[in-house]
Design goal:
The protein is mainly α and about 250 residues long. Helix content is about 50%, strand content about 0%. The protein is globular. InterPro entries: Ferritin-like_SF (IPR009078).
């Protein structure tokens, strides 16, 4: 396996704060994990997932920086984990900025943004811990296209990110070989779906609008829409300064 150079790369843009222990406990309660602290939970997951080159179905390559400066997410299950990690970094950064810069928020609206941010922080830190040296670097973001003076635009973008994220998790699940990863991803995507629902609700209740919890994210059979990495990455790339490449992500079912 080609040696990853990612661990030597340092992000130079704004950083996202580390997750406080109280926020970790809050998210774990939502997942129904009451007995363990977040640190113990993350460490247990990290140790239970074998990412080594000889780790059975996990014999896949980690992320690397290409000659053109783009970041390759890697291959196999590691590539899928990095794919999810990039999306969680994006969501965490967005909500960090949104709760600080969005004008005209009510107390309840601010609480919603803060709670979602807390969840995304835990998701992000989980993937960071599991991937270790196989992880992509900390990414830099550009939210200049978001009008933070318009709360409706903020919740619209939030809903796009969340709905895209749900479709991304659903679409990536078919390519995962490690059963433990599938189980954990299922817990995360259920929380992301709640985020999509509440942000859609906050975005739609305006004069002349009609509320729909699905907000166009379900198919004719009432199932969530599934997105391929090739459909998700262009959406995420609109906010990420570094160029991401999913060229080596799996394309055949597990």
């Amino acid at each position: 396996m080609e040696k990853s150079t990612i661990s030597e790369t340092k992000a130079k843009g704004p950083t996202v704060p580390s997750i406080p222990s109280a926020e970790r406990r809050l998210f774990l309660r939502h997942l129904g994990i009451f007995a363990a602290s977040t640190t113990s939970f993350l460490m247990a997951c990290s140790k239970s997932l074998d990412l080594s080159p000889t780790g059975g179905s996990m014999a896949h390559s980690g992320a690397r920086v290409n000659a053109d400066g783009s970041i390759d997410l890697g291959a196999g299950d590691i590539g899928i984990l990095n794919y999810a990690y990039a999306l969680e970094q994006l969501e965490t950064a967005f909500y960090t900025v949104a709760q600080e810069k969005t004008a005209g928020l009510t107390f309840n609206e601010l609480q919603i943004l803060q709670e979602i941010r807390e969840h995304e922080l835990v998701h992000r830190e989980f993937f960071r811990a599991v991937l270790g040296a196989n992880a992509i670097p900390d990414l830099d973001f550009d939210f200049s296209t978001v009008n933070f003076n318009d709360r409706n635009n903020v919740f619209q973008v939030a809903n796009i990110l969340e709905s895209t994220g749900v479709g991304a998790y659903n679409g990536a699940a078919r390519y995962i070989k490690n059963a433990d990863i599938i189980g954990i991803a299922g817990k995360i995507v259920s929380v992301e779906a709640r985020h999509a629902s509440v942000t859609g609700h906050m975005y739609l209740p305006l004069p002349g609008s009609t509320y729909s919890f699905g907000f166009g994210t379900t198919d004719s059979n009432g199932l969530d829409i599934v997105y391929k990495p090739s459909e998700v990455l262009p959406v995420a790339q609109g906010f990420i300064k570094q160029k991401l490449s999913g060229a080596n992500l799996p394309t055949t079912n597990a």
